[in-house]
């Protein structure tokens, strides 16, 4: 009798939990309808549990001019989520005794400064000290032009070291381009072939491969920025990011990949534990992705107008991935909404109310701002009645007035609070607050 009563209560609770989750998914649908109606997001997302998709959504167009709508098989450039694949291949090579994490890289790259001190492990967890080539001032001039291996090595070598190897951590795409070349050297195969043979085919990922020039006829999405309407972005040539950011995929495929990785179907537990060892915020191809008391792992990515975010939670074996090809709303906020729906946590549907300003009213904000707290300078310009900003070596982004002298770029969670009289600006992003002064 007691067992029957317990079972009935358990069934009742399970039913109630399913009802709450379904209700929250309805709210999630409302959020995405709201984002779509305000031109805030184009892209695709998926939530999986135990490797099976339990929620997915697509919004917007893969090709606006052709009115080609995004569907669940539309493929996107995933940017730095690619690093999870490269790290996985690196640990596979280690398990096959082709490399060692403690070996230095001078035999592969004798022209790289401090190569005799930098280990393969230092490349994986961004402790190499090698300059990040995407921070070069001329990067946006040549990033659309194909590069050979020799040209990429020269560009990376020219940047030299920015700190002594293993003395601290600093994100550098150069690390994972070098890992690409190491993998190709030890396997005597191209990176694209390694991805296919060692990850894609075993996991039956139908929509994942190393990208080339975007082909909309193959259901590959173009990417867009926004300036009153969606405007097509330029395409980086994929010979440049390689294992740092050149893979194209779908949210469903990425969820399958992450689930397989964390369930030890690709590398051993020992390797996975090493990937999940964090020093100064960096694992080996992974970031920590906390949500309330839940511990998640994954990566984010950005390339051209694409942005992406993946988070896997081992305890519950769930994975959520968001990929956008046009975004004026923070992907992390979207990811939080997806996870809130699953875990029955509250989340808000945003109100989009902004102040319209004339071109003349924007003049008082224009100029170059610098900070003693971080090295990035920020230049503020205007295009018509839109305030624009860009950091050193990066693309410009639009700012929207939310209050007097306060502007936001919600896609990246950026808030700028200006004081025109004192020619200062407060930059807020990701919990950080930085003081800037007009030069």
Low-confidence stretches: 1-20
The average pLDDT value, as a whole number, equals 92
Strand content: 15-25%
Structural class estimated from helices and strands: alpha+beta
Rg computed from alpha carbons, rounded to a whole number of angstroms:
23 Å
Number of DSSP strands?
21
Query: How widely separated are the two ends?
Result: 79 Å
* Share of helical residues: 25-40%
Based on Cα principal axes, name the global outline.
globular
Q: Provide the spatial order of strands within the biggest beta sheet.
A: 14-15-16-17-18-19-20-21
Q: Enumerate how many helices there are, as a single number.
A: 11
List the keywords.
alpha+beta; 21 strands; disordered N terminus
Q: Outline of this structure?
A:
With 439 residues, this protein is α+β, with helices and mostly antiparallel strands.
Describe it.
With 439 residues, this protein is α+β, with helices and mostly antiparallel strands. The chain is 31% helix and 25% strand. It is built from eleven helices and 21 strands. The protein has helices at 2-37, 82-95, 120-124, 139-142, 149-159, 173-187, 191-203, 251-262, 269-275, 331-343, 359-362, and strands spanning 41-49, 52-59, 61-63, 68-69, 76-77, 209-210, 224-226, 230-232, 247-249, 287-288, 297-303, 306-313, 318-327, 367-370, 378-383, 386-391, 397-403, 406-409, 414-419, 424-429, 432-438. An eight-stranded antiparallel beta barrel has the order 14-15-16-17-18-19-20-21. Strands 2-1-13-12-11-10 form a six-stranded antiparallel sheet, sandwiched between helices.
